Structure formats: C-alpha cells, structure tokens
Hints:
Number of domains of chain B: 2
GO molecular function (chain B): RNA binding
Number of strands of chain A: 14
Protein name (chain B): Response regulator receiver and ANTAR domain protein
Pfam families (chain A): Peripla_BP_5
Shape of chain A: globular
Strand content of chain B: 5-15%
Structural class of chain B: alpha/beta
Number of strands of chain B: 5
Strand order of the largest sheet of chain B: 2-1-3-4-5
Number of helices of chain A: 11
CATH class of the largest domain in chain B: Alpha Beta
Radius of gyration of chain B: 26 Å
Organism (chain A): Pseudomonas duriflava
CATH architecture of the largest domain in chain B: 3-Layer(aba) Sandwich
Low-confidence stretches of chain A: none
Largest sheet of chain B: 5 strands, parallel
Strand order of the largest sheet of chain A: 7-6-8-9-10-13-14
CATH topology of the largest domain in chain B: Rossmann fold
Oligomer: heterodimer
Helix content of chain A: 25-40%
Protein name (chain A): Branched-chain amino acid transport system substrate-binding protein
Mean pLDDT of chain A: 93
Amino acid sequence: MRDTVSIGALLSTDGTYHWMGHNALTGARHAVIELNEQGHLDFELRLEHVNPKGRLECYGKALVALQSKGIRHVFGPITSASRKDIIPNLEQGGSLLWYSCPYEGFESSESVIYNGPCPNQTLLPLLRYALDAFGGQAFLIGSNYVWGWESNRLAQEVLDAASGVVCGEKYVNLGVTAFAELIDALVSQPPAFVLNTLVGESSHAFLRQLDRACTIRGLALPVLSCNLTEGELAGIGIMQTLRLLSCGPFFEAVDPIFIQQQYLRHGPHPYSHYYASTYAAVHLFAEAYQRSGSDAPEAICAALYTAPVQTALGDLEVSPRNNHTSLPCYIAELQGSQFIILHAEPGMQPADPYLTATDLSEFRTCRKLTPARHLRIVK
Amino acid sequence: MILLKRPDFDNGQLLLVDCDERALASLQKSLQRLGIASSAVHSDASVGLVDVLALVVELDHFASPQLVSEANAAGVPIIALSQHETLSQIQRGLDLGATALLNKPITQGSVYSTLMMAVGLRERLAHAEAQSAALQEKVASRPLVAQALAWLMVELDIDEVEAYERIRSLSMTLNKSLEEVCHDLTQAHRVGQQGVGS
C-alpha cells in the first residue's frame, strides 16, 4: 500500500476574486486525481482545501489550520497581499508555498516556489507588443494594492524609456464596480491603450462598462492585462468592441490536445493559466517528492533544482538562485469567447524578479511610436 | 561630519501611524525591549508632535496625510513601514518624506538601526536644506552687492577691487554681514537721491 501525502490548497472560492481561486483549485484537484490514477508514484496525494473567502485577515489562520494537520506544502493563494501576509507563518512553520499566479516581482522567499510569472515574463513583453501595435499613450488603472501599484509603476518606467505618455492613472479598492466618471473621460479622450491591473469583480465591471461606452462611440480601444484569463469570461460577458489583450504562460489555444484531454476527462471548465499553472505546480511537487522521497521543503527544493520537470506548461526549471520558474510567455487577444494567440516569446523565459538583469533601455527602440489610431465601426 | 546624537528617548516617543494589528504588536514589543515609548494613531487623529522623536508610517494602510505633512514641516523623521520590497512602495515612502524603510516582518534587530538611520538622515537633510537656503539667500543678494559696489565706485571714483575692499572692511568693523552692509549703503543712497530731488 502506498503512503498518503497530504498537500494543502489555500484558495478563496468566495469573495471578489473567486473565479481565479476556483480555476486554480480545479487545476490542483485535477492534477491530484490524475497522478493518483496513473499510479506511477510511490505515494498517493491527498488535497485538503481551505477557503479564506477573499478576506485578507483569514489567510494566516487558514494556513495555520493546514499546518496543524501536518501539511507542509500549500498551493495558492491568488493575491500578493495574501501571499505577503502568510510568509512569516510559512517561515515559522517550515512550510513551502507553491504560488502560481502572476505577480509584481520584488520578492524571493526561500519558503515560496514562484510558479507564476513576474513582470519580465508578462508585463514587459506585453508592453513591448502594445507600444509597437498601438502607440505610446497609455492610461493605467489598477486595484489599490501592490499588484496594481508596482505593475503601473513599471509601465510608467517603460513608457518613459519609450518616450510614451501616461495619460492618467487610477486605483480603486478591491470590489469597487463604479467607473462611470472614469469611462466618460476615457472615451472622450481615448489613449492608445489602457493597462488594466484591476482584479476580480472590479475588472469585470470596468470592462463591461467600458465596452458599452466604446460600442456607442464605435471605439475599438485596446485594454491590456496580465491576469485576464478564460476563467473570467463568464464574469465579463461578450465584448462588443473592446479589444482585450492578455499575457500569460498558458491559454487554451496554446495546447488544444491537452485541453481536449482535460475536457474528455473532467468535463467543461475554463482551462486558464491559473488552472494550468496550479496543475503544473502539483506535478512539480509530485516529481520532486518522487525524486527526494521526503516532503521536507529543503529536500523538495533540492530535488526540483536538479533537472527540469515535464508539465502542461512545458519543461519547467526552477532556479536555485531565486526559487522562480522559467516560463513560456504568450500574448493573446479575446475574440468571441476564445483567446487567440498573437505572439509567443521564444523559448522559456527565466524570471528576473528584481529586474536586475533586465535592460529597460531596449524600449528606447520603440521611440518611433505610431500615433494612436482606433478602428471605428462604419455602418 | 555631523555627529549623530542619541535622541532624547527619556522624554520622547515614537508615533506608530496606521499600523495594522500585527505590525503594531510586533513594533510595540520591539520598542519596549529597546526602552522606547510609543503611541498608536490612526486616520489623521489629531496629536501634538512636541515630544515625538519619529513617525513609523505603515504604507499599506496609510490614511494620515495631514499628520505626515505636519511631521515633515516640523522636521520629525519618518520611517515608512511596508511588507513590500517594490520600487513603487519605496517611492511612496520617499514621497511621504521618509528617510528609512522598515520591511515587514519586523525583526528585533532591524528596528533600532532603521530608527537611527531615519533620524541621522533627517538631520543631514535638514542641515543640507539650511545650507542650501543660506546659499540661495546669498545668490539672491548678488544684485544688491553689485548695486552697492557700483555706487561706491561712482561716488568715490575708485575701482571695483577697492570698492569691494571698503565694503568688506565695513562689514568686519560693524560686525554685520556683507549683504547687510550693502543693503544699508543702497538704502542710504536712495534716501540721498530722494533728498536731492525734493
């Protein structure tokens, strides 16, 4: 009989960003089911889920609850604010967090495996694409916490290097859905593109309201995001005129065969990058446990560093220098209810969380910016 | 070199501004061990700054712009507190006038060194600001000195070097600054001109 290894999922399936939490949790569950069924591992996985309901003050207690059951490996959470909040508990309890969401960088904890992309793996390629395609006048909107602040600060730095212009910047608290005044301003003097770092319900409401306003004016305004996935399309609805571009390590269109397999096995789900990254993270853990025969975080990390692991995102390599994963990077545009891949960065992109190896002066080559042009619908 | 002096911890306290429960508990415990008194304030509560040695301002829950503005005007050192290492937070701290950043989780070893760094840099900034203001004043008074020199050269039929030497010598005799002497001379000249014309 095989040993059972318990792992935890610290993911909010209620609250303002529950779509992302659901997607990530489904990815973890599917990975556990499949790995247990395949039977090639020396152990069986058991997934224990706790739901902090999107309330920041609940994450610490939820983590301690998992730790008190002897769980040392936790998958989640979604926001940087909640990840930051639990790092002291992780360090104190000798646990390892498997974080699979895009985040703003500037972190390198020994208690975290960063399986989600940081800005050099998402935002910078996306901005490079947008500056070439749309021009250099940008409006920045974000949720009022570190993800929005830092992503938009970096965007400002990039725009500055490219001689672009930040037309405006706005932050709203999580859960805010009233954008009428802002949208009036945006459609009356449209920028070349909007960078949207809003999260959850705020993002959905903003996109729906902006799409309505743009449709009235026949304005195909591009809106860029690094956290918009298939998992949120139900919350957004069908866009009429807005051009939604997103960037991430996975979209359904990247690997139709994998999607077909998952569909046949588990039924219809949004197979977003939250899903695929968490699914891949469980595979990374299982392979590392198989290699090391121990669930001690140091042994798991050491085993991970030795060789890449084959996953749904490709052959993933975790850097022993900063615990970040090299990831693929795709830029996609929403067309109907599907993201279509517009661009893929070549190969796996190593993470540079502190941007110490990233030269932003390359954006100077984008200085011959095309003037902002918006397609208008002619009836 | 500006000597970094120990603040008057016996008669002063730190203000812990907009800190969340966890940070507050951690800071209070740490400050108690250091023998430094502290008070917690939230959301621009009205407090006097007379006995305040420094402010520790949590950026992640910041809601006291007025208090921070008053502290800056009074030259009270500010320490930004954040759980983020991001440049946006560092910039935010600088914009609020912070001269040091304390990162969460707070460790016992980091509180005193961060506090003293904030105090020391605040002093250096104040010194540099005072120097800059004095130099600006000197630059602003250059036209006045030129006027006084020109008047002396014309009135006494002397060259520029001698005119300057006379002003300098007057300055030393009267124990007044060069600018003050020039001010007095130009004033006297104006009064004389008005007298002639009337």
